[in-house]
Amino acid sequence: MTGSVGGYQVGFQLTPLGPTGDLTAHDFKGGPHLVEKDPIFHLCTENREKGNKLVQDGKYEEAVARYSEMIMQSRALENETDVQWTEEGRDSVRTLRAAAYLNLSLCFLKLKQWQHSVNTATRAIQGDKDPADPKENVLPPEKKAKALFRRALAQKDGFENLDEALKDLKKALEYVPDDKSIQLELQRVNQALAKEKKKTDQKLAGFLSAKTSGGIFSEAQRQRDTSGPELPQEPVKVRDGLWLVPKEEDQDAKEATEAGIDLDELGREINELREDKPEVFSELREKMKTMIEEEAAKHDAADEVVGA
Questions:
Q1: What is the structure's pLDDT at 230?
Q2: Regarding beta strands 236-239 and 2-5, do their DSSP bridges make them parallel or antiparallel, or are they unpaired?
Q3: Distance between CA atoms of residues 104 and 110, nearest Å
Q4: Do 258 and 202 form a contact (C-beta atoms < 8 A)?
Q5: Residue pair 140/94 in contact by the 8 Å Cβ criterion
Q6: Is residue 210 a contact partner of residue 261, using CB atoms and an 8 Å limit?
Q7: Beta-bridge partners for 237
Q8: Per-residue confidence at 194, pLDDT binned at 50, 70, 90?
Q9: How many other C-beta atoms can be found within 10 angstroms of the C-beta atom of residue 245?
Q10: How many other C-beta atoms are found inside a 10 Å radius of the C-beta of residue 113?
Q11: What residues does 238 pair with on adjacent strands?
Q12: Angstrom distance (rounded) from CA 55 to CA 107
C-alpha cells in the first residue's frame, strides 16, 4: 500500500511473522521456490505446533480447529504454481496432512465422536482422496500403528464392533510387534469376543432345550411343510397302555419361561446375529441342527423300546 507525502513515496507491506515475532524466518520475496520456503507451508507447521500444544493442554475442540485449518492450507499449497515441486516436496505436504488427520483421530477419540475418529484415522493411513491414491500412503509404520490403534478403540468403545477392532489391532501389531498398549487392547478384545460367543452359545442351547426353532434354519428349510397330521384335541387310546395326550398350546412358552428364557429377545438376537455375523450364525445353525438330529434320534430309539 503506497501514498504520496511531499516528493516521497511511502508505504508498507504485510510479511508473516515467525513464531518468535521475527521477520527473517518467513521473509518471503516471491518467485520460484521450494515448498519448504512457501508461506503457506509455514502456516501449516505453525498450526501443527499450536494444535499439539492444545492437545497437551486437553483443549481438544480448539485443537480440532487448528488441525482442520492445517488440512485446508495443505490442499491450497498443492495448487501453488510458483513452487518448484519435487516428489520429496509433495511428500512433505502429504506427510503434514496425514499428521493432521492422525492428530484429529486422537482429538475425536477424546471427545467421543466415534465416527469422526474412525474416518480421520482412515484418512491418516490412506489419504483423503476418493478413490485412495497410493501416493498418499506416507506415514511411517509406527504412525500407521497409532492410527490403527485409535480406529480400533473407536470401533470397540463407540460401536461395540469387536471384529473390526480385532482386525485393526492385529494389523497394528504387524507394524510394532512389541507395543504393550496394543498387545493389552488385543487381549481385551479377544476376551470380549470369547465372552460374547459363550453368551450366544448359552442362549442358543437354552433355545434348543425349550424346544423352539425359529431363526435357526435356512430359508428353504423354513418353507417346508412341517405341519404334519392334525393332532387330536382330546386324549386318544392308541393301544392298551398307550394314550396320545394333546399338549397345551402354550406349553413351549411355559417351558422357556421356567428356564429363564425370553423368546422374543432371543429371536431378536438371533436375527441380529444372522445379519451382522453370518459366518457365526451359519456355524451355530449347523451345530443346532446336529443337536436336534441327535435329540430326535434319542426319541426314536426310546419309542422303539416302548413299542417292543
A1: 65
A2: unpaired
A3: 10
A4: no
A5: no
A6: yes
A7: 243
A8: very high
A9: 9
A10: 19
A11: none
A12: 7
Task: State the cell numbers at 269.
Answer: 438376537
How far, in whole angstroms, is CA 29 from its chain's centroid? 47
The DSSP bridge pattern shows strands 8-11 and 2-5 to be: antiparallel
Which set of grid coordinates corresponds to residue 239? 393301544
> 242-244 and 8-11 as β-strands: parallel, antiparallel, unpaired?
unpaired
Q: Evaluate whether 92 touches 78 at the Cβ level (below 8 Å).
A: no
Tens digits of residue pLDDT in 106-151 = 999 999 999 999 999 999 999 999 899 999 999 999 999 999 999 9
Reply yes or no on whether the pLDDT at 67 is more than 70.
yes
Q: Which residues of 290-306 are buried (b: 16+ CB within 10 A; e: fewer)?
A: eeeeeeeeeeeeeeeee
Q: Are 95 and 56 a contacting pair, CB within 8 Å?
A: no
Contact partners, residue 137, CB within 8 Å, separation at least 6: 125, 126, 127
Per-residue HEC secondary structure of the chain comes to CEEEECCEEEECCCCCCCCCCCCHHHCCCCCCECHHHCHHHHHHHHHHHHHHHHHHCCCHHHHHHHHHHHHHHHHHHCCCCCECCCHHHHHHHHHHHHHHHHHHHHHHHHCCCHHHHHHHHHHHHHCCCCCCCHHHCCCCHHHHHHHHHHHHHHHHHHHCCHHHHHHHHHHHHHHCCCCHHHHHHHHHHHHHHHHHHHHHHHHHHHHHHCCCCCCCCCHHHHCCCCCCCCCCCCCEEEECCEEECCCCCCHHHHHHHHCCCCHHHHHHHHHHHHHHCHHHHHHHHHHHHHHHHHHHHHHHHHHHHHHC
**pLDDT mean over 56-79:** 97
| 303, three cell numbers | 419309542
Q: Is there a cis peptide before residue 177, judged by omega within 30 degrees of 0?
A: no
- 227 pLDDT band (50/70/90 cuts)? low
pLDDT mean over 220-226? 61
